[in-house]
Amino acid sequence: MLQFRSNGKLLITGEYAVLDGAKSLAVPTSKGQEMRVDQGEPNLIDWKGIDEKGDTWFQTQIRIDKGKFNIISTNNEPETAEIEKRLQQIFISAYQLNSKAFLDNGYNITTVLDFNRKWGLGTSSTLISNLAQWLNIDPYKLLESSFGGSGYDIAVAGSQHPVSFQLTKNGPSSFTADFNPVFKDDLFFVYLNRKQNSREAIAHYKQQTIKNREELVEKISGITEQVIKSEHLAEFEMLLKAHETLISKAINLPRIKTQLFQDYPKLIKSLGGWGGDFIMATGREDEKEYFRRRGYNTIFNYSELIK
């Protein structure tokens, strides 16, 4: 049996603007996804997904036929059908990058998550990373021909350290970022109990003039560089507040603090798709209690969630 593992991700700076080449800071989470691959019946992929509780949340079979991947579906639920369609798309892309792996071969593949797939920590990116490791193909090419996106999550999936990520004319570029803030005990993450469809925000972002987007990329890149080097909590909070203001204007959405937590005394920073998944906040136990009183009970200390 072969085993592969990739890390989940959080994007600290650069959401939306990363698509246009802004330098962004992303961090790998200690929670991720494992993939186990065994030889199986020829020309058949028997796929099983196991969640963080040990329960099977997804199961399907795929018949391999000369580069075609036909779903043998036993479940007609819309969510299952959507996942099967995505999986089929990924395998078609993988076949184009390494057809030999599928020549008269069959596999039993099991994926094991150790985070709740609703959290937005990277169910898809960790899957792409694991498949690329197994098939010895370029994960960015597999991402580009399947899900799409900037690729920052792929960079983080294979890193044990924070990364500075940027889309360049020559493709994705990532470097280890020396980001290990001395004030990390004052940072924590809160799950907002909802998934966010960010299509509308992305659409508004793309309506910005080229000049405005170029100026935003330059400003966000500068903030990212300063955030990585920041040595004091007050400086860190000031930089991220400026970041929130810039993105808020670009996507025409109020800051999450304005929207939900106006009376919170310290910093709140949206992560990824605004209004959903996780936020980052500054504070300690009293501030965590603020969120618990409002029904937000999935809270992680920085050192608890980040590698």
What do you see in this structure?
The protein folds into 2 domains: 2-176, Ribosomal Protein S5, domain 2 (2-Layer Sandwich), CATH 3.30.230; 184-305, 2-Layer Sandwich (Alpha-Beta Plaits). The radius of gyration is 20 Å and the shape is globular. The protein has helices spanning 78-97, 123-135, 139-144, 152-157, 199-206, 210-229, 233-251, 256-260, 285-293, 302-305, and strands at residues 2-13, 24-39, 44-50, 56-65, 68-72, 107-113, 163-168, 171-176, 187-191, 268-270, 278-282, 299-301. The longest helix is centred in the first third of the chain and has 20 residues, at 78-97. The model has no long low-confidence stretch (mean pLDDT 93). Strands 1, 2, 3, 4, 5, 6, 7 and 8 form an 8-stranded mixed beta sheet that branches. Strands 10-11-9-12 form a 4-stranded antiparallel beta sheet. The chain has 10 helices and 12 strands. Helix 6 runs antiparallel to helix 7 (233-251). It is α+β, with helices and mostly antiparallel strands.
The share of residues in extended strands comes to 25-35%
Tally the beta strands: 12
Unreliable runs: none
The CATH C-level name of the largest domain is Alpha Beta
DSSP helix fraction? 25-40%
Gap between N and C termini, in Å? 27 Å
